[in-house]
Specification:
2 domains
């Protein structure tokens, strides 16, 4: 059996997620340009989601 198996707990999704989250938070705080890009992407995503909801609602009631 490999030492990186999921049974050993060495390489599980949770074990990898926590350090990546901490690293991401540090990167975001230290990079205002990246933060602006993430905010802009989020606003564009929300606008697209609202347009999709409106369009599907219109089609449903047509």
């Amino acid at each position: 059996m490999s030492s990186l198996s999921s049974e050993s707990g060495i390489l599980s999704a949770h074990n990898m997620q926590v350090p990546l989250q901490k690293e991401f938070k540090c990167t975001i705080r230290n990079s205002p340009e990246l933060m602006k890009l993430v905010e802009e992407f989020y606003r564009a995503y929300r606008a697209l989601a609202e347009r999709y909801d409106f369009a599907t609602n219109e089609l449903y009631h047509a």
